[in-house]
Amino acid sequence: GVYSKVSVFSATGLDGFIARRDGSLDWLGAPVTEDQEDYGYREFIDSVDALIMGRNTFEKALSFGAWPYSGKRVVVLTRGAVKIPAELANTVSAAAAAPRELVKRLSAEGASRLYVDGGITVQRFLSAGLIDELTITRIPLLLGEGIPLFGPTGGDILLRHLATRSYDNGYVQSKYRVVRD
Fold it and tell me: What CA–CA distances, in Å, run from 34 to 30, 41, 44, 144, 168?
């Protein structure tokens, strides 16, 4: 069958961390600058049919006040219980499926582009060979420690560089495609 395209869109400190050890994103600052620069996020999110995230990422997103993925289908990958607020029950569901099964299911249901978010979830999908594209925005800051975007992959994953763009505030965004054998 035809598989969905699976993408990662993430910001990291220069040392590769996506959050502080306690999950805090306070260092990230406001996602939109005074001149309304969003680093391609809106265009990216508009192109996505469904999001897959781990429970920690989901709970972090809930803490932002306004739900950031309004109208988008979200699947929370978790083996345990997760509390989904009633107002999100139409678009958010939980699954304990293996990454490949989940991509297969969402593809069969018509999703053509998936967004995978959260350190451990991204690592699991990369290890399973399911990620097609990565857009990483590096922020000029060393966190020193925290939750890494990348981890053990079980082998080399070759990437093809597609584009890099730098912003006036020092952010550098690079886009890569995973090279398949």
Answer: 9, 15, 20, 28, 12
Q: Which two tokens stand for residue 131?
A: 């990620």
DSSP state, 149? S
Give the span between the Cα atoms of 160 and 56, in whole angstroms: 30
**In contact, 13 and 27? CB cutoff 8 Å:** yes
Averaged confidence pLDDT in the chain? 91
Q: What is the pLDDT of residues 71-87, one digit of tens each?
A: 899 999 999 889 999 99
Give the count of beta carbons closer than 10 Å to the beta carbon of residue 172: 14
| Angle CA 66–71–75, to nearest 5 | 90
